[in-house]
C-alpha cells in the first residue's frame, strides 16, 4: 500500500526539471525532505480485473476399475457361412425290418399252366381222345375234361407223361399233338413179351395247339384200366415259356 501511494503522488505532483538519461529513460526527482510530515492516506482504488485463465492442470491418476456392466442386446443374425468340407463316411447301420409281402404279380400267373388227371373207368371207345375225368390238378383249366384234350394257352416248352394200368387186353396208346401221334406205347397183356405202358416227352407248343392220348390201331388194343385201387394218369405242365 505504501508503494501504491507513492506512485499516485508522483502523478499528482507537478513535474519540475525532468531529466532524461542518454537512453531516454525518465528519471524521477527525489522526494523533498520531510515529505512524510502531515502525510494523508488516499482513497482506496478499485479492485483490478480478473486475470486470464490459467493453464490446464496435470491429468489425474486412473480411477478404480468399475463394476461389470449389463449384457448388451442381441445383435442381428449374421450372414450364412460357406459350406464346409464333406466329412468321412459313417459306419454301416443295422439291417432294417423285412418289408411286407408283395401282392402276387400278374405276369407270374399268366405263365402258369399245369394239369394232372386220371381215368375213372376203363376205356371202351378206340380212336378218339381218351377222357381223363379224375382231376388231381387243373387250376388254369387248360385241360378240358369233356374232350380229353389239353389246350395250349402259353407258347413254350411243355412236359407230358402218362402211366397206364393194363388189364384184360393189350394196350396201344399214342400221345397226339395237332392230330398227329408223336409217341407210341405198346403193352401186350396176354403174350407178355412187350411191356411198355408209360411215356414222357418234351414238346414245344404254340398257342392253340392241343395234346391228348388216344388208342391207336384196330381198336382192340384198349386195355387201359382204372378202378378204386388202380390208376392210369396223364400229366402235363409248362417248363419254360417263350420269351419273345
Ligand atoms: Ca405186358
TrEMBL record:
- Recall the taxonomic lineage recorded for the source organism: Eukaryota, Metazoa, Chordata, Craniata, Vertebrata
Q: What is its main location?
A: secreted
Question: Domain named C1q: which ranges?
Answer: 108-244
Listed Basic and acidic residues bias regions: 55-70
Keyword Disulfide bond recorded: no
Instruction: Check the UniProt entry and state the signal peptide residues, or none.
Output: 1-17
| SUPFAM superfamilies given in the database record | TNF-like (SSF49842)
Pfam families, per the entry: C1q, Collagen
Query: Per its record, how is this protein called by name?
Result: Adiponectin
Q: Where in the cell is it found?
A: Secreted
Start and end residues of each stretch annotated as Disordered: 39-105
**What keywords were assigned to this record?**
Secreted, Signal
Amino acid at each position: 500500500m505504501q508503494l501504491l501511494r507513492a506512485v499516485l503522488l508522483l502523478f499528482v505532483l507537478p513535474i519540475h526539471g525532468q531529466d532524461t538519461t542518454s537512453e531516454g529513460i525518465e528519471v524521477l526527482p527525489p522526494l523533498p525532505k520531510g515529505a512524510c510530515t502531515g502525510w494523508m492516506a488516499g482513497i482506496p482504488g478499485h479492485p483490478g480485473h480478473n486475470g486470464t485463465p490459467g493453464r490446464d492442470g496435470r491429468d489425474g491418476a486412473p480411477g478404480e476399475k468399475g463394476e461389470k456392466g449389463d449384457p448388451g442386446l442381441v445383435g442381428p443374425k449374421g450372414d450364412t457361412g460357406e459350406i464346409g468340407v464333406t466329412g468321412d463316411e459313417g459306419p454301416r447301420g443295422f439291417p432294417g425290418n423285412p418289408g411286407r409281402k408283395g401282392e402276387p404279380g400278374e405276369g407270374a400267373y399268366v405263365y402258369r399252366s399245369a394239369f394232372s388227371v386220371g381215368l375213372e373207368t376203363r376205356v371202351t371207345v378206340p380212336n378218339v381222345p381218351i377222357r381223363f375225368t379224375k382231376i388231381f390238378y387243373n387250376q388254369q383249366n387248360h385241360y378240358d375234361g369233356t374232350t380229353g384234350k389239353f389246350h395250349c394257352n402259353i407258347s413254350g416248352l411243355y412236359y407230358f407223361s402218362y402211366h397206364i394200368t393194363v388189364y384184360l387186353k393189350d394196350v396201344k396208346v399214342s400221345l397226339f399233338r395237332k392230330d398227329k401221334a408223336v409217341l407210341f406205347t405198346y403193352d401186350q397183356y396176354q403174350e407178355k413179351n412187350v411191356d411198355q405202358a408209360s411215356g414222357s416227352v418234351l414238346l414245344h407248343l404254340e398257342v392253340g395247339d392241343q395234346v391228348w392220348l388216344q388208342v391207336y390201331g384196330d381198336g382192340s388194343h384198349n386195355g387201359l384200366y382204372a378202378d378204386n385201387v388202380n390208376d392210369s394218369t396223364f400229366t402235363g405242365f409248362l417248363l419254360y415259356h417263350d420269351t419273345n
